[in-house]
Design a protein that fits this description.
The protein is an alpha+beta fold. It folds into two domains: 3-95, Pseudouridine synthase I, catalytic domain, N-terminal subdomain (Alpha-Beta Plaits, 2-Layer Sandwich), CATH 3.30.70; 107-243, Pseudouridine synthase I, catalytic domain, C-terminal subdomain (Alpha-Beta Plaits), CATH 3.30.70.660. Helix content is 22%, strand content 29%. It is built from five helices and ten strands; from the N terminus they run E-H-E-E-H-E-E-E-H-E-E-E-H-H-E. The protein has helices at residues 27-39, 72-83, 137-145, 195-207, 216-222; strands at 3-10, 44-47, 56-65, 87-95, 107-115, 129-130, 149-152, 166-176, 182-188, 237-243. Strand 8 and strand 9 (182-188) form a beta hairpin. The longest helix has 13 residues, at 27-39. The two termini are 24 Å apart.
């Protein structure tokens, strides 16, 4: 059956996440409805990253299987005409049968943005978490370094029955931009549910002096959700990139 790869970007503000959910507005629901209108058939889709409500994507990937072949450029234009600029297909190409958007991905990168000004910036209110307190980035990077490598992240995620919480993190670092925005970049082959937002919340507690950075390994080793404190708001998080083998 003809198989296509759709690279998409979206503003997650008005969606109840990516995954389809009856009775609420989701990215998958809107995308599949647009594809059905454009092609006249019900689509079979699979996504690389199932983002939560309010989370954005600069780059996510969807596998699309249809009963009949279509012109990729025409379908891309149709999707963008119906959904843009809230949801945009940045690329749409035919790929080999058997391609998996989820399982063929070798890396996923997320970015979290913090508005660290004394007063909130209205222009960032949907894209950055406002934290008006001073943040010690050196301490936050010491904490983030403890995430790197293979660990059981049960303390930093919502567990799904029967699924492992062991993940390998290849990069986790904080930086301050020239405009004062504080940015967290983290990359792994895959992530557990709410894992990145929990990392951010813990690092912010470290940055504010509430938690010593040296306690992070101990928190991970506890494998207990109660050992860490909460999750950062979803609107500061963006699925930044999904990578596949060359």
């Amino acid at each position: 059956m003809p198989t296509y790869r759709i690279d998409i970007a979206y503003d997650g503000t008005a969606f109840r996440g990516y995954a389809g959910n009856a009775g609420v507005r989701t990215v998958q629901g809107e995308l599949e409805a647009a594809i059905a209108i454009a092609t006249g058939s019900g689509p079979d889709t699979e996504v690389a990253g199932r983002t939560d409500a309010g989370v954005h994507a600069r780059h996510n990937v969807v596998r699309l299987v249809l009963a009949d072949p279509v012109d990729p450029a025409r379908l891309q234009r149709g999707i963008n005409a119906m959904l843009g600029p809230e949801v945009v297909a940045t690329a749409l190409v035919e790929v080999r049968e058997g391609f998996s958007a989820r399982f063929d991905a070798v890396a996923r990168r997320y970015r979290y943005c913090i508005d660290n000004g004394l007063v909130p910036d209205p222009m960032r209110r949907w894209w950055a978490w406002h934290v008006p307190h001073p943040l010690d980035l050196a301490a936050m990077n010491e904490a983030a370094a403890a995430f790197c490598g293979e660990h059981d992240f049960a303390s930093l995620c919502r567990r799904a029955p029967g699924r492992s919480t062991v993940r390998r993190v290849d990069e986790a670092r904080w930086r301050r931009e020239l405009d004062g925005e504080v940015v967290f970049d983290v990359e792994a082959s895959s992530f557990c549910h709410q894992m990145v937002r929990s990392m951010v919340a813990l690092c912010c507690d470290v940055g504010r002096g509430r938690v010593e950075p040296g306690r992070v390994p101990e928190i991970l080793q506890a494998r207990d959700r109660a050992a860490a404190r909460g999750t950062a708001p979803p609107h500061g998080l963006t699925l930044w990139e999904v990578r596949y083998p060359e």
